[in-house]
Design brief:
The structure is a homotrimer.
Chain A (H helix, E strand, L loop, with lengths): L5 H23 L10 E8 L8 E2 L1 H9 L5 E14 L4 E14 L10 E2 L5 E12 L2 E14 L1
Chain lengths: 149, 149, 149
């Protein structure tokens, strides 16, 4: 990392932080196809509620999300994002996430939205990032749940 | 955007992100006058609980906030801020917000503050930013509520 | 601040923002020794639930945290971080924090973690930062609680 300038480090940090928010948005809006733009081809993923079940490969990751049942609205509130740049092509990071979710029935109240479940999950992600020909991507995501309401 | 350097892009992103936090602070602390420093003169705004009621003009926006009743303490917890720079004078962004609020009576407990309402709102903002002679400002804010506790 | 470049300002902002997240992680993971890397030697600190009890000195701060009882899991969700750079060696900032905590007994459910207390605290920090020979550090932290669930 000694060869990277301040601006290079900041730009990499920003790119990786952005991936975290784009991941949240993709799965919350069920834009599962966009996951292909966020993970490297050989990426691995373990979701927070199944931290020991690691799945491998971008296509497998996307298909796993595509196979989720519908009828739920989720919002992942991401915070405490801290990226560490290891080299021009590698970085890692930690972040926290609060998952707020609820059923999509009955329809959303225009004013207050959907009623959330009483149980919210508070979790964390350990991420590794790699720079590919297409830009920065998740090389691995490992989630875990720490607390629930 | 092809003519902007990395540092220019990062600086614009940071300026726009900052507006989002300053807006939250201005309305939470009832420093409504500061809203004049955050919106462009012709800005439009729709608050999350009334997404189809768009109000127009910086002065109208400020007066709308000034006319709110008192007796409430609010904290807008902003997250997942993702700014996209479109040009040297235009940008747009998305972010999430959790609104936690409660009555100001009885007085705050020095240790634990005010008792919050059971209902928290989880919402989003779509923002457009413009660079004015005075710096970056909101050109438009569109809020909506997605979930409530 | 007129002598600082955009990249210098961004780099300082990022360093200070990072301290806020590292502080949260240090106390949540009970890595109290790491607090020595976050505060200046003469730093002062007032925790949110005791805003008028200011303690002074890095060693005192660390020992105060070390003396906390165990048996609790905490996660500080930090947000709305806004750093203002005052000079090449001074900055200040504001941020918000939601504290979610619970007992560590019974053991965590692998899927959903520990059960959180019903009461969450929503607070704020006013921070001052100083650049030391070892890098940017907290010169002072003043916390306060605004709301609780």
């Amino acid at each position: 990392m000694s060869t990277l300038s301040d601006i290079e480090v900041l730009t990499i940090e920003r790119a990786c932080e952005r991936l975290i928010y784009e991941f949240a948005e993709a799965i919350d809006l069920r834009n599962d196809a966009h996951l292909d733009d966020l993970f490297s081809e050989e990426a691995t993923y373990a979701r927070p509620t199944a931290p020991n079940s690691v799945i491998t490969g971008r296509e497998v990751i996307r298909k796993t999300f595509e196979s989720r049942p519908g009828g739920r609205v989720t919002r992942h509130i991401c915070s405490n994002v801290r990226i560490t740049v290891d080299s021009a092509v590698r970085a890692h990071g930690v972040s926290r996430v609060v998952l707020i979710a609820g059923p999509t029935e009955p329809p959303a109240d225009p004013q207050f939205g959907f009623k959330a479940d009483a149980r919210q999950l508070i979790g964390e992600f350990d991420d590794e990032f790699v720079k590919t020909a297409a830009g920065w991507r998740f090389a691995s995501r490992r989630g875990r749940v720490i607390l629930h309401t």
